[in-house]
Amino acid sequence: MTQADWNPGNYARYADLRLRPALDLLARVPALPDGAAFDLGCGNGVVGAMLRRRFEERRLVGVDNSPAMLEQARATGSYDAVVEADIADWTASEPAALIYSNAALHWLTGQESLLPRLVWALLPGGTLAVQVPHQNNAPSHRIWLSIADELFPGRVDHRDLPAVMRPAEYHHLLSPLGQFDLWETEYYQLLPPSNQGHPVRRFSESTYARPILQALKSDEQTQLISAYEEVIAKAYPAARDGSVLFPFRRMFFTLTRAAG
């Protein structure tokens, strides 16, 4: 399925909540050799300023396949260059000291071959740093798919949905290639009240549910959203002011290639 371009406004609605794990990942990047830093899946460039501040003397390149997102990333002025490319086919244009990817690689299939290729693009002593949501089994995500499959069987191609490997699979794949560190964090995010629907629906519809909704016609999207709204409040009850405490799990790993 050919998906429509990302909507930067919808994605940026919860920018502060999406930025926190990006900064937590950045904090775990060690000292680096001389070389360029690449922000794979840079999106609208929200992490660009933080990368620039940390690596001010390095050439910083943002990479994304969304023209709309790249337009905003370019406008931040944080990157020396932005490149429109699919991460699955991307190759570094110059020696890489850092390949940083926040909330992007879970959209790609074939991580078993992609990740080692990214590691070998690093200079000796360079680091691959990755964060991906690990939320697919939570009600916020699972309910979207289960209702869609019930109402419109066969319409949603599960291969279009974001997915991650199991932690042990990442460990077995990457630990032989360098110094590997893997961890998870569950963030308890306070979502503000919304007059346009349940906060968890508003949070998840622009990311995980995006390919599900795009597989449906407009009236079918409305039907799915209505059904989701009926169920999601039971899993994530709102406070009196309409806000919702929303647990969200994310997986992180860094790999530093051996210096010698």
Task: Describe the secondary structure blueprint for this structure.
Blueprint: H1 8-11, H2 15-27, E1 36-40, H3 48-54, E2 60-64, H4 67-75, E3 81-84, E4 96-102, H5 111-120, E5 122-133, H6 139-151, H7 167-174, E6 178-191, H8 199-204, H9 210-214, H10 218-235, E7 244-257
Parallel strand pairs: 1-2, 1-4, 2-3, 4-5
Antiparallel strand pairs: 5-7, 6-7
What does this molecule look like?
The protein is α/β, with parallel strands linked by helices. The protein has a single domain, classed as Rossmann fold, CATH 3.40.50. The protein contains ten helices and seven strands. It has helices spanning 8-11, 15-27, 48-54, 67-75, 111-120, 139-151, 167-174, 199-204, 210-214, 218-235; strands spanning 36-40, 60-64, 81-84, 96-102, 122-133, 178-191, 244-257. Helix 6 packs across helix 10. The longest helix is centred in the last third of the chain and has 18 residues, at 218-235. The radius of gyration is 19 Å and the shape is globular. The relative contact order is 0.17.
Write down the CATH topology.
Rossmann fold
- CATH class type: Alpha Beta
Given the helix and strand composition, which structural class is it?
A: alpha/beta
Whole-number total of structural domains? 1
Task: Summarize the helix and strand pattern as letters.
Answer: HHEHEHEEHEHHEHHHE
Give the DSSP E fraction (strand runs of 2 or more residues): 15-25%
Percentage of residues assigned to helices: 25-40%
CATH superfamily descriptor: Vaccinia Virus protein VP39
Mean pLDDT: 93
Parts with pLDDT < 50 across at least 5 consecutive residues: none
CATH architecture: 3-Layer(aba) Sandwich
